[in-house]
Amino acid sequence: MNGKKANLNKAPGTVVFTGQRKVENVQIVHLQYDETEWKQTDRSEYDFESVFDASGSMVDWYDVRGLHDTELIESFGRQFNVHPLALEDIADTQQRPKFDDFPSAIFLSMRALSFDNNTMELNYEHITLCAGAGYVISFQEDESDLFASVRKRITSRESRIRKRREDYLLYALADAITDNYYHVMEQVEDIIEKIEDRIVEDPKESSKSEIYHLKRQLQTARKTFVPLREAIGKFSRSDNNLIEERTYPFVQDLYDHTIQLGELLDSHRDFLYNLQDLYNSEVSFKMNQVMQVLTVVSTIFIPLTFLCGVYGMNFINIPELTNPNGYFYLWGVMLLLTVGCLLFFRKKGWI
Known about the structure:
The protein is of the alpha+beta class. The protein has helices at 48-51, 70-80, 84-91, 148-155, 166-201, 205-237, 248-311, 319-322, 326-348; strands spanning 27-33, 38-43, 59-65, 98-102, 105-116, 121-132, 135-140.
């Protein structure tokens, strides 16, 4: 059963997977590092007791890809003493972004964002980050490597991550997710600009549908951006002993990024409203152009219709009817009237 209904009538802290299974088998990438060395192991299952040493100098990062294995999530909880409510949120793919501060760990729930240019759909992936003394655990819905940039930095001995502890790694992972939001916003901006160009060139009903669709997508995204800003704000204000003093400026900078992203999202939404007004204006303008042409044609034919009506009446004593050149005189007058109207309209700038 998917969705929140899967959690109904369950005790608080019960681990229930509420999403759709996106990987066949859960993958675990275990990376250990300190200032002098690093090593990585990829496995589908893990014996934590044989690899994790809380008293060691190395930081252990477990990158778990796939959330459907609730037993594995619970085993992480038992090994690292993760709060049951945090474990419940890990498996709940509909969980809004949040930050929880526990005595022995800090917990950050986020959503990774991607954009499909073909369908113009924003796609979300539930991400959970948990950090404690000597370890960080990241849980992803999909098998894609969202943290490749962080992993690459760890392999460099001169990287700041190698010289810091788990709190900085947690920040780096959250920063990688947040930075991708900028890329998504750029993609959305490119789509909006293309829609604008199409509207100016030739407003069609499809452009109106695209504007409405994007407005709905950004409205949904705002439900992620706002709680994310609140979560990072709590992170920046946390006084947990796990967070070193020198890490706070970086977290504060991350918080500033979330504020900027919120403003960028609102800017795109406002631009879409302006595009909708532009579409309506362009449609009205084209309609006015059509009406203008029809009006000009009607105005030209009004005097011509009058002449035809006069000489089409069934009276006997109409002098011009007996004139052998009357037909040609009438055509001449009608042509002069047509040319005169056209010249007058052109002088007025109506055509």
